[in-house]
Amino acid sequence: MLRLILNIRSNPKFWFLLLVSMAVVATMLFIGFSYSQPQDTIQVSLDRKTALPPVQEIAGDAYSGPSSNSLRVAIAGVLSPSESLETYQELLGYMGKNLGKQVTLILKPTYAEINDLIRGQRVDLAFVCSLSYVIGHNEFGMELLVAPQIRGETVYYSYLIVPKESNATSLSDLRGGTFAFTDPISNSGYLAPTYQLSLLGESPVSFFSRYIFTYSHDNSIIAIADKLVDGATVDSLVYDRMVVNDPELASETKIIARWGPYGIPPVVIDPMLDPELKQQLLDFFLRIHTLDEGRMILDDLGIDKFVVVSDDIYDSVREMQTKLGW
User: How far apart are CA 218 and CA 231, in angstroms?
Assistant: First the structure.
């Protein structure tokens, strides 16, 4: 089942009403993979899709060790599971074919779990959020491999979004309302808005009447479109892509603030990864845009190409961490 993980910070009446609302606007979707859940959560589907494309393999809680013909790839929950599969399956399938390896795709509902997989050397490669990288780099030397370049840039923003009919024009106008964050270690979905609240002398607990964690940016966007919460902060890259693919979302939501820029979410590896495999992966990402099939895949993803980036493009994320004492 595709899950929207809600971490309720209020009394039971609120989540009961929220579940009733979601039951009206959301369709429950069952898909064939399993993963562990955060404790004290409510599982609700917000996916508007009805079918999923096939993938080579999806791993849940069982992980095989490294081998010469396998490539274990983890994807953080920037997108909900169905969106992640649709977004990444062609790229990963092409990577496997190009490198002559069987790709195992590993999905986990929280960014922290993906970091733990990398730390434990249970994956070879991962697509992570900027804050996930900063934390992983600090804690165990998580290593940058490449990052996507989109519209000539390697930056993105945190969008503060509200329902189209909302009268709110700034974060201050959402005082006392309900709010959707993405993940506790999401930059655009939690760190950036929490930092903005600190500039107002506030915190999520003191400022909002209730807040939730959706554990994916597309679910946060849908929560706003369906008026389940008063406001949310999301990855600008995800939002911009979703409104192109689903223009209805643009008519149901609006952006009232943009914070950033921040270093774009990177592709990372464990610092102990085999040097030969690391070089193979680096070569693949740096040349994919020059290959006919690779160019088409990147065009579908809205990516110009993958490039090597410097660690210092994530300094703005570190500065917010430091000022918040995280």
Answer: 14
Q: What angle do CA 135, 136, 140 make, to 5 degrees?
A: 125
The domain of 123 spans 58-153+264-324
Q: How many degrees, rounded to 5, is the angle at CA 167 between CA 177 and CA 25?
A: 65
Cα→Cα distances 271→106, 120, 121, Å: 19, 11, 9
Chain centroid to CA 277: 25
In a domain, 88, yes or no: yes
Question: Do 261 and 155 form a contact (C-beta atoms < 8 A)?
Answer: yes
234 domain residue, yes or no? yes
Within its chain, how far is the Cα of 320 from the centroid? 19
Token pair belonging to 150:
């989109």
**pTM for this predicted structure:** 0.79
Residue 216 lies in a domain: yes
The Cα–Cα gap between 217 and 249 comes to 13
Residue 242 lies in a domain: yes
CATH number, domain at 175?
Answer: 3.40.190.10
Co-location of 114 and 172 in the same domain: no
pLDDT in tens, 293-312: 999 999 988 999 999 999 99
State pLDDT tens for residues 141-159. 999 999 999 999 999 999 9
Q: Contact, 92 vs 73, CB < 8 A?
A: yes
**Same domain, residue pair 120 and 161:** no
